[in-house]
Every structure is written in structure tokens, then in C-alpha cells.
Amino acid sequence: MAKILITCAVTGSIHTPSMSPHLPVTADEITEQAIGAAEAGASILHLHARDPETGQPSASAEHFMAFLPRIKQSTDAVLNLTTGGSAVMTLEDRLAAPKRAEPEMCSLNMGTMNFALYPAADRITEWKHDWEEPFLRNSDDLVFKNTPRDMARVLSEMGQDRGARFEFECYDVGHLYMLRHFMDRGLVRAPLFIQFVFGVLGGIGPDPENLTHMKMIADKLFGEDYFFSVLAAGRHQFPLITMAAAMGGHVRVGLEDSLTISRGTLARNNAEQVAKIRRIVEDLGREVASPADARDMLGLKGADRVAF
Length: 308
What we know:
Layout: E1 6-9, H1 27-40, E2 44-47, E3 49-50, E4 57-58, H2 61-65, H3 68-74, E5 78-81, H4 91-101, E6 105-109, E7 113-114, H5 132-137, E8 143-144, H6 148-160, E9 165-170, H7 173-184, E10 192-198, H8 208-222, E11 226-232, H9 237-246, E12 250-253, E13 260-262, E14 265-266, H10 270-283, H11 291-298
Parallel strand pairs: 1-2, 1-12, 2-5, 5-6, 6-9, 9-10, 10-11, 11-12
Antiparallel strand pairs: 3-4, 7-8, 13-14
């Protein structure tokens, strides 16, 4: 099997500060946890920004630039910026920081979908900030817009114009067919790095048979022209990513995807999750890829060609 890529999604835009005191919010916290994750074995760091005062997801280029140069100076990990941002942001907002930073990698959501977070609100009894409860509860009427026109714009402005490669986030089987469509149009080139996403309410469920089905369809559509990785929400994180590693795939952990390290126990930081999955995959006989390996495998432009 190929060396295994460990991605760490450091903070995301789904969880709120009231859910865990360990969720990184400020530039210092995001920097510290990102570096810790890299030192623990993550070769790719998937990054969002937050307002340091409120913990609210932020599209501000200034908030991103408060931590990007510092992480780059301290680790050789590949820095992968979100273009998904938050489902409540416009595409213009979501692209502001990636366009300024010109990273080696970006994420790209491969379809419009319901993105329902509201069940999480019922598990919180004390709120740190006024924005959190409405943000979660109003997601019962939230559509995460990623139209073919939106996707083509991201591929053009980030890929063709700025040389970024992509983490293609596929939340359902239809997203794989959309990715094939863009490959047929010549807007996407191999090797692809496809992130199968399980467990978001509105996307495909976190069932083992869904993972094998997504892999089967991806094999049919892309042959040997892709790598697959898996992320799974909440308590499904480690069972499904362990299965992915055993299947020859790659893995993603991080406090964006799950706040726990084991059932009922909050992870103290991102590095703790990285260290756990590293132990698991090495016990399975997989060798963890370095950042240099990641750049070679995915055909990245190199850290010397970013704008931070």
C-alpha cells in the first residue's frame, strides 16, 4: 500500500465554542494546535479561521493571515485552505482568503446540499456567545450552495490562476459524478485527492457499506487516477477512518470533524487525535507520509510558491 496521508482539520466552521473548551479560536490557538498536529504526524493541515473575540467562523483574509505565516515558519506541513468556509457565507466571501494566500491546496465542496446542524443545539445547556444557538437551530432551513457555476469558478480562480490543487469533498455519491463531469471538461486533472465525507445530516450516512459503495463508484469513474481519504463526523470518526486505512485509503481527523478522542471524552487538542490515528494505521502496517511525500503524491506546487 502507498504511504498514508493524515490530514488534520484544525477548527472548521461547524462546532461552536460552547461545545468544547479545547476548540481553537484565536490565531495563537489555531497556530499552536496546527503545529502540534503536524508534529504528531499530519502531513496536511486543513484550515478555517474564526473571529478571535466570538469564535464565530470567519472569512476574513486578515484572520487567516494572522496564523498562516506562523504555521508555515514552524512546520513543513501542506497548508490546505477551505473554500467552503461556512454554509452561511457567500462564495465571494469564501474565496477572499484563499485568493490572497494562494495556498498549495484548497478544499472544494462538490455539490449543493442541505447542511443540518440543528440537532447539536439540543445537547448544549449553557451558551458562551449569543450567535451560537441561532446559528445551529436555523440550519433546519439552510442550503449549502455549491452550484456547477460556483465550482467552475473555484477551479478557475484557485486552480488555473493560482496553481492550487484540491481536496474534493464529496458528501454523497452524486458528488463523485459531478467531479467526473469537471474532469471530462478538462477543469480537473489527475491525480485527484477525494475526501469522502460521512455523517453530516443532509449527506450520505456513516455506514460501512456506504464507504465501500463510494470506493466502488470512485474506482469506476476514476480508475487509478485518484487517492481517496475519509472523514466521518462525531463518534463515527475513528471506526470509519480505520476502515479506510485498512482499504488502502487515507484519513482525516481534527476538531472540525469530531470533538472527542473516545466515547464521551473530549479531545484536548488536535494532536491527540493525530497521534491516535497514527498509532492505528502503523499497527495496520501503513507508513505515514511526510509533507514531502504528500507534495510528491498530489503534485503540489510547493510551499515556496504561496503568498504568505
